[in-house]
Design goal:
Rossmann fold; 14 helices; binds the ligand N[C@@H](CC=O)C(=O)O; 20% strand; binds 1,4-dihydronicotinamide adenine dinucleotide; alpha/beta; 2 domains; 37% helix; Dihydrodipicolinate Reductase, domain 2; six-stranded mixed sheet
Length: 363
Amino acid sequence: MNVSPLRASHPVPASQRITLLGTGTVGRAFVARHVALNARGMTLPPLAGIANTRGFSRIDCDCPNAVLNQLRDSEAPSASEWIADAVFGPGDIVVDASASDVIAQQHAGWLRGGAHVVTACKLGAGTSRVRWQDIRDAQAETGARYGDSATVGAGLPLLRTLRELAAGGDRITAVAGVLSGSLAYLMNNFDGMRPFSSFVHAAHAAGYTEPDPRDDLSGEDVRRKVLILARAAGLALDVEDVQVDSLVPLGLQPLSRAAFFERLPEIDAQMRAKFARAHKKGEVLKHIGRFEFLTDGTLIARVGLTSLPASHALAAGAGTDNRVAIWTDRYCENPLVIQGPGAGPEVTAGALLDDVLTIQRHH
Ligand SMILES: NC(=O)C1=CN([C@@H]2O[C@H](COP(=O)(O)OP(=O)(O)OC[C@H]3O[C@@H](n4cnc5c(N)ncnc54)[C@H](O)[C@@H]3O)[C@@H](O)[C@H]2O)C=CC1
Ligand SMILES: N[C@@H](CC=O)C(=O)O
């Protein structure tokens, strides 16, 4: 095993190979699935390198888990210096399982170099319109692929469905639904009695939340998903076009992550009150992201908590289920509805590997 936790150059390969960025909840599940599929005799591009904030390690052995563990446990100081030395080119598949804006800024450049990028991180295509456009332009210039199935619905067939409908000439008139697996889990389990904060801890421990759960509770993660969905539908929405209502109390917003967790119970009273109001009306709380064309042709986009009758089309689902309704020219009376688990390391890693396999089949 050749492990070099800091600064390693990465020459352009002759054949397809994977470099995994991120050794956290999703990265670890990705390696586990890669190992498991290999053991089942599937032919996959090899895992050639892994990076995290500690550095970059080349994998010269049949032991990606050992390399991952060594890198995770490395005492090296936190640094992203490996990025400056990394060169990805044709044949490379970069799998982004980080939540790093520094890495997301590199997506377009790596595509321009001819490498394919497969990402669970939404900060590439789910933030500014300029960054998203740059990624699209880079793909068009080199033909390299941008695998984004994991970014919305943790691999549920949402993005591909929207793209196929749009490619078939259908106008997408609205998309609305539960787009956060962690918020689905929270709303499906919170009973108004046990503290809401205890469920946030459980969702974090299960790997459903973002590394910082405030990204979920603030609605920012769903804003990114709404942007990615709208862009897949051919609508170039920008960040400020999406109105977002946050669940994070003001006092908890500027804190470090550790301090936020300490003061998390401060969220409980407001959530108990919201639950009680909904319960009194015989309704349930659901966190909904949507974009839609109003009858005057205006496109609006919103994210936030709402209370719905239990019989409402978007109120169904259990656990981490995302449930998303799509209205188009074709599906104008009754929407097309897609539902299934929308968060968790295994489904997310599965979506990343599905995209890797698609690239392998087409290149
Ligand atoms: N947990 C889930 O259900 C889903 C997660 N995702 C996305 O997957 C991504 C990863 O999530 P988790 O694994 O929960 O996060 P995590 O916090 O457990 O792991 C993040 C990893 O990224 C690495 N990293 C951060 N900055 C880096 C840098 N500059 N260079 C190299 N590595 C760097 C960290 O060292 C860490 O290993 C996030 O973008 C999240 O939005 C997407 C769909 C579902
Ligand atoms: N934190 C996200 C994970 C998937 O994108 C969520 O809760 O949906």
